[in-house]
Write a structure and sequence with these properties.
single chain, 137 residues, mainly alpha
Length: 137
């Protein structure tokens, strides 16, 4: 049982980094660049919160930035963003296949994606592969 709690604590520790890296990738895809202000608006947090989080992402090798310049993902950051997006989409598609509404599937997948094990994710993919996916997934 201790291993379960340890994994959950570990998942929580990486949740914010994963959310930020995924958001930065999405904003760059949509707008061509991502600035701290984009993250302030998206997450509805202060500039100080974004600056502190970005500093941790830089320290951990996920993001690069220069003063007054847009944020950029390192190759490690891009890989993490891609993995987060894939996990998110599998969980969302799985919830939709269960009959959950799109709005609920979007909201729930945002939390579940951080805690789903690789084993469960593979099982979800296998179930989805045997079903036809809903439109838009």
């Amino acid at each position: 049982m201790a291993n379960v709690h340890q994994r959950i604590r570990s998942d929580h520790a990486t949740e914010i980094a994963e959310d930020y890296v995924e958001a930065i990738a999405d904003i760059i895809t949509r707008n061509g660049q991502c600035r701290a202000n984009d993250l302030v608006r998206l997450f509805d947090v202060t500039h100080a919160t974004v600056n502190n989080t970005v500093a941790r992402l830089v320290r951990d090798g996920f993001v690069t930035t220069e003063p007054y310049q847009p944020l950029d993902l390192t190759s490690t950051g891009k890989t993490l963003a891609r993995k987060c997006r894939e996990r998110h989409e599998v969980v969302r598609a799985f919830l939709l296949a269960l009959g959950v509404s799109d709005a609920t599937a979007i909201a729930d997948s945002e939390g579940i994606e951080h805690h789903v094990s690789q084993e469960t994710l593979i099982a979800m993919k296998q179930v989805l592969d045997t079903r036809s996916l809903p439109d838009g997934v």
